Amino acid sequence: MRYLFSTGLIGAITAGLSLLRGTREAPITWRAVLAWVSWGITLALAIGAMVDMRRDERGVAVAMDSPIAPKQDKRAKKQQKAVEKAAKATLR
Asked: Is 0.70 surpassed by the pTM of this model?
């Protein structure tokens, strides 16, 4: 449920509604097509961000081009250090 109310998705949906109202009675021009393509890309990016957040929450690796990837790498390195430190402590 948390993902359905993300700001990116809400913004994409409201932009789509606004675009729909603005182009409902207007003729189809290249500008209108470009606006709809742009909206589709925005919606796809919002959905992709939700998928990456869910994968990160479950501990699944995300793609390297995701904005979440650096955080995930940092967390993995920190956990690796903790494991190494615990292993070193048990050897003593």
From this structure: yes
